[in-house]
Amino acid sequence: MPELLDPRAIGTDLARRDGAAKVCGTATYAFETPVERPAFAHIVQATVPLGRITAVDTSAVDALDGVLAVLTAGNAERLAWTDDRELAVLQDDEVAFRGQPVGVVIAETSELARQAADLLRFTYDEREHDSELTVDHPGLYKPDKVNAGFPTDTAEGDVAGAMATAHATVEQTYATAMYHNNPLEPHATTALWDAEAEVPLTLWDSTQGVHPARSTVAKIFGLERERIRVVCPYVGGGFGSKGTPHANLVLAAMAARALPGRPVRLALTRQQMFFLAGYRTPTIQRMQVAADRTGRLQAIAIDVVEQTSRIKEFAEQTGVPTRMMYASPSRRTTHRVAALDVPVPSWMRAPGECPGMFGPEVALDELAEALEMDPVELRIRNEPEKDPESGKPWSSRNLVACLREGAERFGWADRPPAGHRDGDWLVGTGVASSVYPTYRQASSTATVRFEAGRYAVEIGAADLGTGAWTVLPQIAADALDVPVDDVEVRIGDTRYPRASVAGGSSGTNTWGSAIVVAAGAFRDKFGGDPADGDEVSGDVDQAERDSDHAAYAFGAQFTEVRVHADTGELRVPRLYGVFAAGRIVNPRTARSQLIGGMTMGLSMALHENSVWDPRVGQVVNHDLAEYHISVNADVADVQAHWIDEHDPWVNVMGSKGIGEIGITGTAAAVVNAVHRATGIRVRDLPVTLDKVLAGLP
Amino acid sequence: MKPFSYARPADVAEAVRTVATEPGAVFLGGGTNLVDHLKLGVARPELVVDVRRLTSRAVVDLEDGGLRIGAAVTNAELAADRRVRERYPVLAQALLSGATGQLRNMATTGGNPLQRTRCVYFQDVTTACNKREPGSGCTAVGGSTRNHAILGTPGVLPDPTAAETCIATHPSDMAVALAALDALVHVQGPAGERLVPFPELHRLPDDDPSRDTVLEHGELITAIDLPPLAAGARSAYRKVRDRASYAFALVSVAAVVPGDGEIRLALGGVAHKPWRARRAEEILRGAPLTEHAVRGAMEAELTAAQPQPGVDGGNGFKIPLVQRTVVATVRDLALEA
């Protein structure tokens, strides 16, 4: 059994190293990078959902002083790589979805750029579009694989047989809405092209990965990677939407190349975020669950219907958690996708697990009701000894401990009866499980160098606000066996060694592993008394890698929901989560991540809903006044706890990812509590007051 | 975003004259709605006339026991005024249920009632909207209608291509309270001053949805009077929305019981204007305000209600919701007594 790093700095609640700079406003974000004489670019979007541009009239713009360039398909540079049609902007006259970029205007001020964008006149030959997902859409197909490379379908045993003969069954359809990642900082770039420079293209970009962004841009523009620098010290939130470059980055680079020597700033407006930054597909989940009299599952099946765009496939792996969560002799998971004339979906916090822990965790609640069994106990009874999908033993699995501790903290045993009324409010309690896989990316390199009496650790990683600036020094300090104050970690720049994307809750696991390798190599080579300038690199692929265990973080969430007896208004006074996520490197930043995920899950449960108007072909509530996220007044007592977990198999830090698990299962816990309060089972999110009116006294 | 000129006249008369003579001119108060519209291209004025410093920023006692609120008094100031909180709780509650602290610090008494609908199609210049662009049609019919009207509309599924079609709601909370209080609006126009009873300030779309109020171009609200209420009067505002704060009303109710056997009820979120439930008021006049009576009166009020279907599930739920909300609000007022 591998040994874990001896924790000294690890496990302490070191304050964020970038905290003071952020609070004081001195941390610079991409759009505010100090540059000389910036120009401003504004994206022009298609106003038809499908068709072809037949004419562009720029005459009104030509008369404006201060407009520096107008790029459209007619004059934009030809890109070297156009296979990714989301990124192949301004390459032809085709419009594949409403809101797709059809031009970019560059001007001396942002106001002028927007004015000019308004004055451009596009004429379209519009074609009939198809943008509405339905459960029986004629275009549904089986993708070759789903996101993260998972198989599209799995099956074992006899689900139909179990459904026909089991003591208790649930067969229901659940739906999650379309959701849009809305980090406070919109997607933004400051770009500079200087053909004479050694590194001609510099992109200060808000991204979850400077190296992956650079690789994509290099491919698109046919440039060597070394001729591009991507810089991103700080990110004002990403949630997956900044995990892969979107059209705005290509347009920013294009705009800069059209104005050599002139830095160009380009930010998406909040409204544009609803067209160009990715989103989570709506999902329709048909669940079948069968159990014997004691509550042991005989079958569990999920058949998922979801959407992608016609120009680029992104098939969310919604059915994946059903493959491993509970023991069952029979099991089926399928994904069917409709390719529509819609914007391109992408990663949003816990793709797969987030929507995929809704249907199943509500279905289990319905099963518990049918069996007249405590839903906590039902979950415990279906604890698998090994991973049902791979057959491998768990690296560690403490779902049961999370359920028990959560029940204890919440006071589950003494919860009020169904339909309990307290004054004007109906009170209900609910529970659901959480899960997220423990990932480690295949490539990342860290360099350790001794500089002026301190250790400099360089790795081209990203901190989305999650805490990488803070936790990586903790890991490096323990790996080098020095106080954390003796370590300076530098991230967020392609000048530092190549690092993976901050995605899949893999950042700390991956970059930390590379740092530990580099630190070990440094001590092996230079000992405990290095000379100034001594330097060595280490790769994550040199770290021990276990492939004999199934590695996941687990959790349990408990919630109290109050429903107003007159109006159906919903409030969630308590939301408690208990997680088992390996060793927690920094309790302060970890708690923020977990509470943030749970709050986003609460928001998904009660509020978030991108209202798609299939006649127009767009999200119509495309701003933060109309697209509701939970506000402070909606978020009351949210607590995140964890149990100490010693997992030697995941990595030398013993850490599992914590960025995404918090959002999984939350919405199901809320729906289950609403049912206990009102008797109404809401199977389509969000749970809004109109859906519970019928259950009120 | 279209460039515009900006003027800050010396007094109300000059401001009124300036706007009245320039068809492309608009008044600017707190700017909490207009500035958004400038950015979105919903408003494209040639000239923005800043009146924020021209009208009174004081709340003064009137001889009859009422209050006169200067048009420049902010929503935050008004909600905090002790006289308002004690004598007109319905207004203080309505103000505090609106927007956010930051917005209430900017929004003015004169500007708040003139804010425009939050219909998502009105706010998106790439879609047809009779209110924004007369004659272009109404995209809201059959679209996202959760926040739209159930009262004062032409019917279920009105013709979306007709120039008169509009199913928008008025978004102000303050206006609903003022309608129930029978406030009086002081309006300064090029031809002099006139008084408009608040319930008559806003209009139904009729044949011109682009007009939200009866004000003519160039007319400026300078003050709003609250008539006196008897010592035993009670009032309350109840707002029901999709989240606990910073959301427009799905439905809201302003209820005033002056103490003379009457009840005044104004509804928000249900119509193109703050909706005085005159029929329900009439039925309840002189009657004991039992739950049964209020429910029955609201049933009568809502017989003409037209739910709108929509891609978001429509707004039919507003009919039971507004009825339940009125019943609860009046019940709670009665408990106060």
UniProtKB/TrEMBL annotation, chain A:
Key words of the record: Molybdenum, Oxidoreductase
Entries under InterPro entries matching the protein: Ald_Oxase/Xan_DH_a/b, Ald_Oxase/Xan_DH_a/b_sf, Ald_Oxase/xanthine_DH-like, AldOxase/xan_DH_MoCoBD1, AldOxase/xan_DH_MoCoBD2, AldOxase/xan_DH_Mopterin-bd_sf
Domain of life: Bacteria
Location of the Aldehyde oxidase/xanthine dehydrogenase a/b hammerhead domain: 24-128
Pfam families tied to this protein: Ald_Xan_dh_C, MoCoBD_1, MoCoBD_2
Single GO MF annotation: iron ion binding
Key word Cytoplasm present: no
Name this protein carries in UniProt: Xanthine dehydrogenase YagR molybdenum-binding subunit
Organism: Blastococcus aurantiacus
UniProtKB/TrEMBL annotation, chain B:
Any one GO molecular-function label of the UniProt entry: oxidoreductase activity
Keyword Lyase carried by entry: no
Pfam families from the UniProt entry: CO_deh_flav_C (PF03450), FAD_binding_5 (PF00941)
Highest taxon, organism lineage: Bacteria
Key word Oxidoreductase present: yes
Keywords in alphabetical order: Oxidoreductase
Domain spans labelled FAD-binding PCMH-type: 1-231
Protein name as it appears in the record: Xanthine dehydrogenase YagS FAD-binding subunit
